[in-house]
Design brief:
This protein is α+β, with helices and mostly antiparallel strands. The chain folds into three domains: 123 residues, Copper Amine Oxidase, Chain A, domain 1 (2-Layer Sandwich); 99 residues, Immunoglobulin-like (Sandwich); 229 residues, 3-Layer(aba) Sandwich (Aminopeptidase), CATH 3.40.630. The chain contains twelve helices and 26 strands. The protein has a seven-stranded mixed β-sheet with strand order 9-10-3-2-1-12-11. A hairpin with a 3-residue loop joins strand 15 and strand 16. The longest helix is centred in the C-terminal third of the chain and has 22 residues. The chain is globular, with a radius of gyration of 24 Å. Bound molecules: zinc ion. Zinc ion (ZN) binds next to loops.
């Protein structure tokens, strides 16, 4: 009897401990990976492991599946199921996969051995020290260095043998080195981040192509490169130009430094783009602008911040222009304000979105609506040709696009959580919560970004609310509180 009672209690009270980190030892470097324990099973953030080790995780829009591709291996996980596909065979890891805060968590004990069977490196899980060990002798892009020379900057990428590579410079003084058949020692390379010369250092492993991207604190105008021997290395010299920043003294006071102080507020639609229209003819563009202005007013009172609005009156601003305004300002947060619409008049509530592929149909519908409401009014030729389209067949463009998608995903998701918390506290309308979807306006902005749907303009009671200044102020106040929270979490001193 007691035995059964105990079992019963155990079943209804599964023990879920709070999130903590486990260790990941890779190429002698120690990394941290988020984990939690559920009924004594260690769940690890596989999303973070992939970030560190390489490969790509792809969210499938339908069916809640996540695909992981690494070299020649393809894994497919179904959220909430212990079964997964590996190269079209079904395996069972005993415990279900978990989706939490935009990340895929897998049971370390029972999953990692399946991974070990197919990857180049030896994967060992040590439960007693909560460590994943990855033996990684197979790296052939081993290190980088960045040194100041009399007339410029010298970047070197060290290889174990000569490899084919491409170098290209992208907007914002990013220099990107893409190495074919290059397996990056990412933790070693990442450790060379040097704030004297760089705003950012990113590494990306996609199948057998390794890419290193560095956002330099200088203009990349004149540069040349060469493959050298003894030791094999790619040398890139970037010549000084008269426009460049003095790397020591003349630091910009805003932008991608370690301060969170430049906030871009994007009032959705405007001018000839009305957005959604309510039953009483309330126009989304007017609601967005009013909330955006209230928010700007509130933030401007706080002298720690600088506010930039993509529009402060009723005018047409294209998606490209919005992104350009944000990127030119080197903003730390991008907040796009909207009101939602549905053909079903009873649908109510607010949503917070951050950029990623849509996980479900309703998130996809919102993204489609917000994206299309801009495209609809454009000249057909213009909308197809003038927008810089991404060529997905070009592996380099694929990498860049994915970097934009994932670079700020953690911060964007985190900020979305903070807004969600404030909205739940202060808005009386139903919480539809956080979701992820692919918005055009967000995916060209180089900063953590969210899109807020502040209520349904197509619902009678919410339309009334969306017209009221009081509600605009309430939304603005909640967002401002979230910004403060974000600042205190992410700002390094
Ligand atoms: Zn909208």
């Amino acid at each position: 009897m007691y035995k059964y009672l105990f079992l019963f209690l155990f079943i209804i009270l599964p023990s879920i401990s709070h999130a903590k980190n486990i260790k990941l030892l890779i190429a002698g470097a120690e990394e941290k990976v988020e984990s939690f324990k559920k009924n004594d099973i260690h769940y690890i953030s596989f999303s973070e492991v992939v970030e560190l080790v390489g490969g790509t995780l792809d969210w499938k829009i339908l069916g809640h599946t996540i695909e992981f591709v690494e070299d020649k291996n393809r894994f497919e996980f179904v959220i909430g199921s212990p079964y997964f596909n590996r190269n079209d065979s079904l395996f069972n890891m005993t415990f279900p996969s978990v989706y939490k805060k935009g990340k895929l968590f897998l049971p370390a004990e029972t999953f990692l051995r399946f991974w070990d069977e197919v990857i180049f490196q030896k994967v060992i899980w040590d439960a007693s020290s909560e460590t994943i060990r990855i033996n990684s002798e197979y790296f052939n892009v081993t290190d980088i260095s960045c040194t100041k020379k009399a007339n410029g900057l010298l970047l070197e990428v060290f290889l174990t043998s000569a490899l084919a590579y491409d170098i290209f410079v992208t907007e914002g003084n990013w220099i990107n080195i893409s190495i074919r058949d290059g397996m990056l020692n990412r933790s070693q390379i990442q450790s060379r981040m040097n704030s004297k010369f760089m705003y950012k250092l990113k590494t990306h492993q996609q199948n057998s192509t390794g890419q290193i991207s560095i956002r330099l604190k200088r203009k990349v105008d004149k540069w040349h490169h060469k493959l050298q021997n003894n030791p094999p290395r790619i040398q890139i010299s970037i010549a000084d130009t008269e426009f460049e920043l003095n790397s020591d003294d003349n630091q910009p006071t805003i932008g991608p430094d370690n301060k969170i102080d430049v906030i871009v507020i994007d009032a959705g639609h405007g001018g000839k783009h009305y957005g959604a229209v309510g039953q009483k003819n309330t126009r989304e563009k007017d609601v967005c602008l009013s909330i955006a202005k209230e928010l700007a007013k509130l933030i401007r009172k706080d002298k720690q911040f600088k506010v930039i609005m993509t529009r402060d009156k009723d005018k047409t601003v294209s998606l490209e222009e919005r992104a350009e305004i944000a990127n030119k300002s080197d903003c730390d947060l991008f907040i796009s304000i909207h009101a939602n619409a549905s053909p079903k008049k009873h649908v109510k509530g607010w949503n917070v979105f951050f950029l990623a592929q849509a996980l479900n149909d309703s998130a996809r519908a919102v993204a489609q609506f917000e994206n299309s409401s801009f495209l609809r009014d454009q000249e057909p030729a213009e909308s197809v040709d003038s927008a810089p389209m991404i060529d997905y067949d070009d592996p380099i463009m694929g990498i860049i696009n994915e970097m934009i998608m994932t670079e700020f995903q953690v911060e964007s998701n985190d900020f979305a959580i903070m807004v969600d918390r404030e909205f739940r506290k202060s808005l009386k309308i139903p919480a539809r919560g956080i979701d992820q979807a692919g918005f055009f306006v967000l995916n060209k902005v180089y900063a953590p970004s969210v899109l807020l749907e502040t209520g349904f303009i197509t619902n009678k009671s919410e339309e009334k609310l969306l017209k009221s200044k009081k509600y605009h102020k309430k939304v603005a106040k909640a967002v401002y509180k979230a910004i403060k929270r974000f600042k205190s979490k992410y700002e390094s001193n």
